[in-house]
Recover the amino acids of this structure.
């Protein structure tokens, strides 16, 4: 599109970046009101949406304009609203729904990021600034937050499953353990694809109920189980491969090495370790993919205290944990980092 006369493109770009949190808020409010859940059944007018959500009609109409401007909705010729392909995963019923992530980002992370300045100044996580050693312990004080977090992780993991299943051939594995597996979304998807594989979801006791439900719903109950424990203390043996998705990036080097060593102890000499993580590019550019890694890194800084690492940083860290990095496969925005006991 040609620039409008007198327009200040660089200034506009900067302005848009400065106010970009407004987009998160628009999406969050729409998720709380369940707008996409209603529109998933077909186009609706502002009056119908107001009635279904209990919101103030003319204010809701303005929110809907916001959803159009950011590409979540469009308007039909008769003025009703409908979801765009980008907006469809906002419905809870959608395949690979992102609603739970929108609720987590807008309801929890967004508030946490307000205090990013304190973390950058002090070099400490939010938990450390509150006098608590571990982010997950701080989160446990609020069971509702744990539920929102686990549901969000489930939706995020759901999104990258096809790419991970394509990037790595799990057929040579007999028993796979998903360490820090949360509700077991990843393990269940792998087990569904490989009928002879058995598996274990290992996580804190608070994930037991959600993981058992997930295992039952996935129809893999005869081949999968949940095991409760603490990966800083030990990781149970019995698996010939361990997968950890979004675990090592949570922790600083010292804690990551502890987890890796416990995994090494749990694995046989011919075992495999698979990390599913985003890689920090060696050289950054201003694009959406790199922005996702860098904002993820800052999120780790403020949250659990970890970071996004480059491939060479992973190689070194794995070496300290008793592993030798053997292959990195791209899986969309994440990577499958394969290693063997050193
Ligand atoms: C970022 S989430 C990743 C969940 C899952 N792997 C995924 O990607 O969807 C981190 C997971 O680590 C688990 N976790 C945190 N501390 C743990 C510990 N000390 N021992 C075992 N699991 C832990 C959390 O309960 C949570 O499920």
């Amino acid at each position: 599109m040609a620039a409008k006369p007198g327009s200040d493109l660089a200034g506009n770009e900067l302005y848009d970046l400065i106010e970009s949190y407004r987009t998160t808020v628009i999406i969050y409010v729409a998720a709380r009101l369940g707008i996409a859940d209603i529109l998933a059944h077909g186009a609706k007018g502002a009056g119908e949406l107001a009635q279904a959500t209990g919101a103030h009609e003319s204010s809701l109409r303005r929110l809907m304009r916001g959803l159009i401007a950011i590409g979540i909705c469009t308007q039909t010729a008769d003025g009703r609203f409908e979801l765009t392909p980008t907006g469809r995963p906002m419905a809870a019923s959608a395949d690979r729904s992102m609603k739970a992530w929108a609720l987590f980002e807008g309801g929890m992370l967004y508030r946490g990021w307000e205090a990013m300045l304190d973390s950058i100044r002090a070099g400490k996580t939010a938990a450390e600034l509150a006098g608590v050693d571990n982010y997950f312990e701080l989160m446990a004080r609020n069971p509702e937050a744990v539920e929102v977090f686990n549901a969000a992780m489930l939706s995020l993991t759901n999104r990258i499953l096809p790419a991970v299943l394509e990037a790595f051939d799990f057929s040579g594995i007999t028993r796979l353990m998903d360490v820090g597996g949360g509700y077991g979304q990843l393990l269940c998807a792998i087990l569904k694809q490989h009928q002879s594989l058995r598996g274990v979801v290992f996580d804190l006791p608070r994930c037991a109920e959600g993981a058992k439900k997930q295992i039952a719903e996935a129809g893999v109950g005869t081949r999968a189980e949940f095991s409760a424990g603490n990966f800083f203390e030990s990781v149970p043996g019995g698996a010939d491969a361990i997968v950890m998705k979004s675990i090592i990036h949570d922790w600083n080097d010292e804690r990551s090495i502890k987890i890796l060593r416990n995994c090494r102890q749990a694995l046989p000499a011919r075992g495999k370790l698979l990390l599913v993580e985003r890689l920090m590019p060696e050289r950054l550019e201003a694009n959406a993919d790199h922005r996702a890694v860098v904002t993820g890194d800052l999120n780790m800084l403020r949250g659990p205290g970890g970071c996004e690492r480059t491939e060479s940083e992973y190689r070194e860290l794995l070496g300290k944990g008793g592993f030798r990095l053997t292959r990195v496969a791209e899986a969309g925005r994440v990577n499958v980092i394969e290693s063997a006991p050193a």
Summary: The mean pLDDT is 96.
